[in-house]
């Protein structure tokens, strides 16, 4: 689990990122979770945007992505979810 200080640090890092995934009408599926896991391994910190036509609410989407990708949910702001997962081979972010 992340501490409050670590979450604040990650939020400031994520501020400049653009969402690289969008969850739409189909909701969260296995393929999406697999791609998000790979993106997290490469980047460690990503944003996912929840589109208005998504049938699940953003909290549900955040939880299922967190569980599926084994990541930490940094924050949900508006329709954007910020996820973090420490990379095994490509560690870039040094947590405080």
From TrEMBL:
Pfam families (UniProt xref): CRS1_YhbY
Domain CRM: 1-96
Top-level taxon of the source organism: Bacteria
Keywords for the protein's UniProt record, in alphabetical order: RNA-binding
Keyword Repeat in record: no
Signal peptide range in chain numbering: none
Family annotation (SMART domains): CRS1_YhbY (SM01103)
InterPro entries: RNA-binding_CRM, RNA-binding_domain, RNA-binding_YhbY, YhbY-like_sf
GO molecular function, one term: RNA binding
Name of the molecule in the record: Ribosome assembly RNA-binding protein YhbY
């Amino acid at each position: 689990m992340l501490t409050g200080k670590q979450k604040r640090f990650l939020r400031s890092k994520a501020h400049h990122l653009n969402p690289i995934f969008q969850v739409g009408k189909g909701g969260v599926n296995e393929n999406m979770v697999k791609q998000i896991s790979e993106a997290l391994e490469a980047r460690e910190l990503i944003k996912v945007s929840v589109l208005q036509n998504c049938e699940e609410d953003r909290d549900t989407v955040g939880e299922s992505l967190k569980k599926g990708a084994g990541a930490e949910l940094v924050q949900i702001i508006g329709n954007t979810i910020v996820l973090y997962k420490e990379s095994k081979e490509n560690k870039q972010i040094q947590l405080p």
